[in-house]
């Protein structure tokens, strides 16, 4: 096939080739209408930064529609009975709630993510990271994902919640199985794993809640139990849903964010050398790496009232796919968007979202990444890539399977 006959890159979220490099297809989308209907996923694709940013803040849209309409009223099919236990857990977390419930839940949980509290975790995060590097330093080849990128946020969120150390091995499998349902069109096997994980994790958390009632503790579960017991507008189901949400966000997004960041650095050796020579770049580098290859490529929103995106009218009951990965490479918002620039400032990336669903854990995620980068650069100065990684099949939560390196 000649160059002139080569197929134009297309949005194909189930295609491994697209998942490995979606950015050429995003460029094609941005050159077209501001919203494009995609038959295969039954969604309206929104690829431009200005539109994604505005729609994340638009109250005519919702992460859910069940607070204003039934499935039938939105002309959507009923959900399979199999999934009821899964959705019961997930919809009691703030991400799948809309005001006023979302406002109440976020206000209560935000007490644990104040800047002062997050900063108080710095010494502990550094201690955890030092211990992880101790295990791989001088040992030759290792998987950066499994040995460093994954254990740090897993351990931090487990300690924040107050999960006993002996039980933490359960968290990552539960999180991975639950997050399988956030991908497009999950199959029945994925759904059954997600239901089982949601049920097992919620039952486990209820046991911790009972223990905290009998013996209060200063961790997040202990603090939220007090809210439940005082009858302050936080139910036990909401507590469970919140903890599951924090686990999933603390695991999947953080792990993929760190892995994608290091893969980007290895692909851009000049920028890696620049960072090694100037650790003062780490704060801007964290945001630039999250922009360059965001771990959450797409965020879905339901149309609650008819809207227009440019010249495109989109009716009530339709679903939008807000393409974070495309918005973060939009030349209308970023100079040389396909160029990794670790000193980029300003950097209005949307990797943490925007509006009322802006990521509550963003300050903690930034701190974890900054400490991780600084520690690796300091203690593993000769770190280099051994093999090009493969991408996991998921598109929405996008990340590499492993990252083989040697120190």
Question: Can you give a write-up of this model?
Answer:
- With 407 residues, the protein is an alpha+beta fold.
- Helix content is 48%, strand content 8%.
- It has helices at residues 16-20, 23-30, 49-56, 84-90, 101-109, 115-120, 122-136, 144-149, 151-161, 171-179, 188-214, 220-229, 236-267, 269-277, 282-292, 324-327, 362-379; strands at 36-38, 43-46, 61-62, 141-143, 298-303, 307-309, 312-314, 319-323, 384-385, 404-406.
- The strands form 3 sheets. It has a 5-stranded mixed β-sheet with strand order 1-2-8-5-3, with helices on both faces. It has a 3-stranded antiparallel β-sheet with strand order 4-10-9.
- A hairpin with a 2-residue loop joins strand 6 and strand 7 (312-314).
- Helix 10 (171-179) crosses helix 11 (188-214) and helix 13 packs across helix 15.
- The radius of gyration is 21 Å and the shape is globular.
- 41% of the residues are buried.
- The mean pLDDT is 93.
CATH architecture: Orthogonal Bundle
Give the SSE order as H and E letters.
HHEEHEHHHHEHHHHHHHHEEEEHHEE
Helix content: 40-55%
Lateral arrangement of strands in the main beta sheet: 1-2-8-5-3
Main sheet summary: 5 strands, mixed
- Low-confidence region ranges: none
- Briefly, what CATH class? Mainly Alpha
CATH topology: Cytochrome p450
N-to-C CA distance: 42 Å
